[in-house]
Structures are given as structure tokens and as C-alpha cells.
Design goal:
The protein has 219 residues and is α/β, with parallel strands linked by helices. It contains nine helices and eight strands. The strands form two sheets. A five-stranded parallel sheet has the order 2-3-1-4-8. Helix 2 crosses helix 3 and helix 4 packs parallel to helix 5. It is globular, with a radius of gyration of 17 Å. The chain binds adenosine monophosphate. The site of adenosine monophosphate (AMP) has 17 residues, from helix 2 and helix 3.
Amino acid sequence: MSTKRIIFVGAPGSGKGTQSKRLMDAYGIRQVSTGDILRQAVKDGTSLGKQAKQFMDDGKLVPDSLIIDLIRDTLTTGAFPAGWVLDGFPRTMAQAEALDGLLTDLASPVQAVLVLDVPDDPIVERITGRRSCVACGNVHHVRFDPPKVDGVCDRCGGLLEQRADDTEAKVRTRLSAYHQQTSEVIPYYAGKGLVTRLDGTGQPDQVFASIRAVLDGAA
Ligand code: AMP
């Protein structure tokens, strides 16, 4: 199967993480989630984690310089034989331009930019109901995918908790960062002929079918 290099753009809670994991399984490509890498850095107490923590807790974007260094390290040192899907990067024009420079150096251009469109109100409902397992990372939703026992992960029995930045006030701040800063990258990539917009409001299976149709060239 040919190499795939894909960017997911979408508001927080639009399904980028869920769909990236499916792409990993379907195409053997690697998910690069800057949010996951940053959360791990915070947990490990690294210098990056210490610098990023307050921005993340406030629902604000982490400064470009930190994120650009992180993505450069990840893409230049990692092995990606089947390709990658970027989940949550780039989120600003400066990040998009830095990525272009890096990928030119690596001779590995982006092949598709998939935009998952979901209106703000369903996003707030999706995110505020999200509960993640502290042990295995499995994600439940209090309404759409409730655990059998309240507060306990179905998969491993670990404790479920709400992310500090998943409260309604923080979600609204994150959405405004998306509308004001991240959405600018869409016309930038559209100018390069790379963008496909997809309805992200359906069930995950439906959304994934539309993604596959685009990537397999059947759309
Ligand atoms: P996510 O899990 O992708 O929603 O990311 C969680 C948080 O990590 C965001 O609210 C930001 O504080 C930070 N973050 C993740 N990716 C980026 C990025 N590309 N640029 C700036 N901040 C980011």
C-alpha cells in the first residue's frame, strides 16, 4: 500500500483522535497527536511539559516555538514506513508554514488535509461528557458511551476522570482558539488543492467510511 501523509483539521472534539486511530489500524500509518505528546510530557514532568502545562490547563494554545520543535523532533527521529496522520497539528499559520519547510527538507509532502466539520454545540456536549481512564486511556462518554459502573473503565477497571481542559468554560476557550487561529490553515491548504471537508456529525463508522472514500480515491 502506498505511503500516506495526512493532516486532520477540526475543532477539539470533532473526532480527529478517534478517526486517526482508525486510520492507524486501516493503513498501518502512525498517529502523531501533539495533544497526547504534550499530556505525556506534563505527566512525566519534562521541561516541555512544565512549559506547556498552564496553557493547556487554561484551554489556550501552547506557543508555536515549543510545538514546532516538538513536531520537528518527532518527524525527523521517528520511523514512519507507511506514513503518518497529524492529529491536532498545525493549529496556526506559523505552524503550517514551519511544517512545509520541514517536509520539504524531508522530501515528504502532505498528501491530504481532511477537515472534520462539527458545529460548536454538539462539540460542547461531546467534550464535557468525556471521561478518560487514568490507567489505560480508554475514553467513555457519560451519555453516548456510559461505563457499566459509574466512574469505572469498562476495559480495565481503572478510574475514569474528566480532563482538566474538558469543562464547558475551557471548551469554549478552545473553540475560540480554533475559530480564530486554526481555521486559517484551511484556506492555506485549499490553495494547494489538498483540502476535503467532511461532515463530522455522524456516527464514527459513517465518518470513517467517508474518509476512506476520499483516501482510496473513490469519492
Ligand atoms: P488536544 O488534545 O489536541 O485538544 O490538545 C490539548 C491541548 O494541547 C490544546 O488545548 C493546547 O493547549 C495544546 N496543543 C495541542 N496541540 C497543539 C498545537 N498544535 N499548537 C498549540 N497547542 C497545542
